[in-house]
Amino acid sequence: MKGLGVSQGIGIGKAFVIKKRELNVEITHINDVDAEIKRLNTAINLSKDQINNIYLKTLKEIGEKEAQIFKSHEMMLEDEAFINEIKEKIKSEKVSAEYAIKEIANIYINMFDNIKDDYLRERADDVKDIIGRVLHNLLGVQTTDFSKMKENSIIVAKDLTPSDTAQLDRNKVLAMITEMGGKTSHAAIMARIMGIPTVVGIEGILDFVHNNDNIICDGKTGKVIINPNKKQLKYYIQKKLNEEKINNELKKQTGLPSITKDNYKVELFSNISTPKDVATVLENDAEGIGLFRSEFIFMNRDCQPTEDEQFEQYKEVLEKMNNKPVIIRTMDIGADKEVPYIDIPKEINPFLGYRAIRVCLVNVDVFRTQLRAILRASVFGNVKIMFPMISTMKELKDAKIVLEEAKQELKKEGILFDDNIEVGIMIEIPSAAITSDQLAKEVDFFSIGTNDLIQYTMAVDRMNSKLSHLYSQYHPALLRLINNVITNAHNAGIWVGMCGEAAGDFKLIPVFLGMGLDEFSMNAPSILRARYIIRNLKKKDMENIAEETLNLETALDVENYLSNLFAEEEDSHFNRRSKGSN
Question: What is the pTM of this model?
Fold first, then answer.
């Protein structure tokens, strides 16, 4: 069976099947409103106690970043507006607490489900987790008892909530398989942090698997084998041993420079959304932060963050990074990232509409406040400013005018800042890529945002499953645009980074290396493998491969060409190194 691999590794063990009881909540009318609200309060307080216990366990066994998930769960149950909505429904409609909470929660779940951003859309899972807990407590139904799990277990379930994942005994769980879930769900993120191979999206697997069935789970390919034969078992046992050798080799990359065999040096950076993400960046030996998504400071709140609030968050990141580069992208709101205190009208095509720098240049006071906060923080580290979604030279010049105004204000107030702070732009719109020779004269660096550049170049909504075959980072048109941007930047004497998903694609890293990309920014767990790849290549050889790639006709041609060149060679090289070190 085949699903989506979201956490690499191979698990070979016995199935531990979780079949959760469906909570069917139908409308029930009540007579005693006060008694019903008391029931609700009791269930909420019990849920908060349970969540706090999970928080403490997660903090101790997994880490602070992952534990914060459950602090946010607790905060939702302390949100007066949310709880009052439920109580008001009980009072006005005289319905049960179960029905009221389910109806109000569905409003929030539907809101998240309609967001196009993967990470934000899958926050609906958090709401379901929280509400499910309260409903279980209201109904007196037990949640899953993980204490019955034996060693060498492979969990098979319809879905796993963050609470489920946090309660697992890592010494007993070899892998996880679910019918539902996505790559950016909290359960998937926690599985990667915990190092548990995980495959999601195998519809109907619960119909085929029984407790204690022998299971093989390949978290890289997404392949799952139920009751494998001897030949399959032998193959995957060897593959698991090879994976362990590779991981041991990757650990040896820590502290080494990201430099090719012919001495071409690049920088490997990581992407973050909050200051809490810095711990993972440092754990994986990233050389800087290539994308700090500052919009998350503005979201999930009722009012604009003050200059001081922003300053403290930027300062925290810079101090933790200890003078390593930090690129802060100014707020990229609009489209699927809404904030209630900025007027962003509903649009037919929001991804082609009023968003990112376009919002900033209309809400200049909000924009200038953010720039002041970044400038004030600049004395605490090596920070750079990056403007998103630039499509014209006028937008860039207008943004730089606001930045200069912020600088002049701070000078008048006698506040110190780095007056030579580097300023760059994201190249994520074809118009910017095509005119990059002109834009390069106005900035210190470019960062190529491949996620949006693909969808705008190919005219494809990246969330439209019917068009997924057209959304590809291997398309020759995209690669030609990227090559053009890098060439134009270098001709103007500026450096170029990349902060889209393609930057962490192990098959494309050699191509971008050959094109002369200076900085790769990716998810932190990919850093050491990317460094290993780069340190075992010669840039001169990659220049020829990049040129060959640009002449291919289709995305499939490019992917097959690169797979044949690098995939088998990389694995065999790891194995040669491992044997030599024994």
Answer: 0.69
